Amino acid sequence: MARRSRSFLACCVVAAVTLGAAAGSAVPTGPVRLEVWRTTGDRSELFHRSADVAWHASAAAPQGMVVEVDPTRVYQPVDGFGGAMTGSSAWVLDHDLSASARDALLTSFYGASSGLGMTMVRVPLGPSDFSPAGPGTYDDTRGSLADFSLGTDLTTTVPLLRRAAQLSPSLKVVGSPWSAPAWMKTSGSVAGGTLAGSSYAVYAQYLVKAAQAWAAQGLPLYAMTVQNEPLLDTPAYPSMTLTPGQEAAFVGYSLGPRMAAAGLGTKIVVFDHNWDTPSYPLAVLADPAARRYAAGTAFHCYGGSPARQTVVHDAYPALPVWTTECSGGTWGAGFAGDLVWASANTFVGSLRAWSRGVLWFNLALDTSGGPTSGGCSGCRGLVTVDPATGTWTKNPEYYVMAHFARFVRPGAHRVASSTASGQVDTVAFVNTDGSTVLELVNEGGAPRAVTVRYRGRDAVVTLPARSLVTLRWAG
């Protein structure tokens, strides 16, 4: 990952609403109540269900800001939410927790009824900046793929993800390479450099074999990003640069045809880098050969605004967008600031800018922010595991993930909701069971009264200062 400094927003409030009626049905005339779930910046409520709120006839003089949810204006579907099972996350779960604690944490992540209900996971295809096993790739034998193997992933990551898939049967796995094997690169190293022109064909086959190997373990890749952070060249950890022209040529003439011939159904996703450079995916997608095989664009949160995703969506509205990486860390602004920033930007902001899913970076790291392999030294996972005690604690982003993953289910569609960026940020969804979810973020340092308006009815909700609240109703 590439770290960035961030100015954190004031606060997040998320309201999730579970509707028992179809999106096109009217609100019943009988009493209907909304569930209220809240996480506050002062930690007085942490994914806590507060008192329900009742609907009433719309008032001529509503209280506070009016947030209107319009289920007739429908936008993108949702694939789900999750995090990255990096080598470090797998190591922490496997080495620093007892078997019972490890299963409890996996259940907390992926359990549909007793956990967050996450339905996506990202895995590095080979080494990354969080690879305690070292920089070895899936095949380090020059000139041949005869020695191809998932290596240490077979003994750590694969068993953990098999358990995750038991808990979340619809789990979608997204694979991302940080680097080609050293012998395929101009630098002769997995750290830095670019893909040699003579290696396009063999590297494409290497990635096809990676998809086949994961599928053989019962974990087929839903999607594969072409290259993690292709604009980053660092000697500190596995990385590889690709210009837009290189990525377009690789997708259009090497990876795309071979992946299609293999018949795996894995989506090829371009870019996988920061919001501030939409010109990169636009250039890749402008190439007709690449566009034939590209299934969408992935973004990271370490530069720019999530609104920049809209530039790519508007140019290619048929191609999905995903937010595939973001991390909190020691550079943050404390619990409240981190809660607010992640909620308003990585989740609400990216979802309003057409993301079909949000993936956090490391699922779990230890108390030193590791183990690392030359990358970020101040990063933090959704949870922090203490190796000395074998226990784990939830970080702000865990609670943000809870509000979204638990209530916005795969197949949901975003629907229209009014918003006031910088004050109360909102995003709304209708689930496949007819339930509707409204997420609200109060960025201010004082409570706000909000009137939620839906099909001629109002419900007044108080958003605590710097908080994240979920409303859920059936109607």
From TrEMBL:
Annotated Glycosyl hydrolase family 30 beta sandwich domain residues: 411-471
Gene Ontology CC: membrane
Acetylation among keywords: no
List, alphabetically, the Pfam families matched: Glyco_hydro_30, Glyco_hydro_30C
The UniProt record lists the Glycosyl hydrolase family 30 TIM-barrel domain at: 78-408
One of the GO BP terms on file: glucosylceramide catabolic process
Q: Which UniProt keywords apply?
A: Glycosidase, Hydrolase, Signal
The molecular function GO annotations come to: glucosylceramidase activity
Signal sequence extent: 1-23
| Family statement drawn from the similarity comment of this UniProt entry | Belongs to the glycosyl hydrolase 30 family.
**What protein does this entry describe?**
Glucosylceramidase
